[in-house]
Predict the 3D structure of the following.
Amino acid sequence: MIVLAVESSCDETSVSINKDGKVILSNIVLSQIDTHASFGGVVPEIASREHVKGISVVFEQALNQAGITAQDVDLVAVTKGPGLIGSLLVGINAAKAFAFAHNIPIVGVHHIAGHIYANQIESEMKFPLIALVVSGGHTELILMKEHYDFEKLGETQDDAVGEAYDKVARVLGLGYPGGPIIDKLAAEGEATYPMPHIKTEQLYDFSYSGLKSHVINMINRLRMKKEPINEKNLATSFQHAAVRHLIEKSRQAVDDYQAKMLIVAGGVAANKHLRSEVETHFKDVEVSVPPFKYCTDNAAMMGIAGYYYYQRFKKIDAMDMNGYSRLNLSE
């Protein structure tokens, strides 16, 4: 089965083609990071316009790189949510137009399912498994007992971990996106600044608002007193506390559900300290973290998720399919 997939939920315009849910024939990603960097974050209106400008180009490049034509495509998969609604609609309408023009069935795919299935590209999922989903908008623990079976065990009660990274980086004046910058600085520092130990009411839930506020307040106090700030040590201190919270919750879930595998999904899966800590603390189970190129938003992961959705449910969507800024993983 040849699947053409489209991803445009935020600020990457991407089209990918895979074969049988495993072999990536092409994966074209047009990033808008430089466009939004001066604003310190993604501007939805600008993102939508950039998607419109680039969507036809990535379609053509993906087909050419894969060495196929539209007649070879068996299924179209497209991100239907969650995400920026304007951005989503550009990808959805382009995917529907392509599917309609060539009489190809289409399926809408949940963005987080795509991040989870990025792990299937170079690994083989073993059930039951725990998926730790970490990005700028999501911090969740998901239990999977089989393909395309998602049970949310816990989620952030306030800020997502990636959001906390970006806000701390912004207050320090380090630029956008903040996650990679802090990760790089932290590798050169020491954890010398005191950080709170994060606690939550529910066993598998997360919380980053308190840690974020603690760091920002610390920075403001030091600046008011005109005391020097060691950015490398502060980055290290913050990152150790942030990642420790992820590891502790994931360890609890893996033990409680006797998981055979832990997978890490989402943009923050590219964080080098997180990757190292996962390898250190989960030697008793198989661990899967996607290659760096599949951690951030891309259509390859959406195509893999679309393939497994279709294989399990044999359902297709109608041409009136819409996009959703918010969407439960079970929908």
Summary: Strands lie at 2-7, 12-19, 23-31, 75-81, 106-110, 129-134, 139-144, 151-155, 261-265, 286-288.
